[in-house]
Amino acid sequence: MDQDTKLLRAFGLALRQERERLGVSQDVLADLAGLHRTYIGSVERGERNLSLKNIVAIARALGIPASELVERAESLLQQRPSQETSKRR
After folding, report:
1. Could you tell me the sign of the dihedral formed by the alpha carbons of 51, 9, 34, 61, in that order?
2. By the 8 A CB rule, do 76 and 10 touch?
């Protein structure tokens, strides 16, 4: 898996974790962000390369700064190699 794909998946995971922590559905988050539910789902699955505009819209809908959402994704990205290694054992 290339680095871009890993980053998109990490961002999607960070988004999903925050959305679930807040107890918000994809539908509700999409409405709050002014986006479509299927778009949110594809972001969470790491299938979309988001624009800055959409990152900010999603973060605002979650009530957090966009920088925090990106930092969480970067943190997850750094954790993943060790998690993937331990899964292979």
Report:
1. negative
2. yes
Structural element, H or E, at residue 76: helix 66-88
Tens of pLDDT, residue by residue over 36-69, are: 999 999 999 999 999 999 999 999 999 999 999 9
CA angle (46, 76, 21) in 5-degree steps: 80
Correct CATH for 3-88 of 1.10.260.40, 1.10.8.60, 3.30.1050.10, 3.40.50.720: 1.10.260.40
- Amino acid in position 61: A
Q: pTM here?
A: 0.86
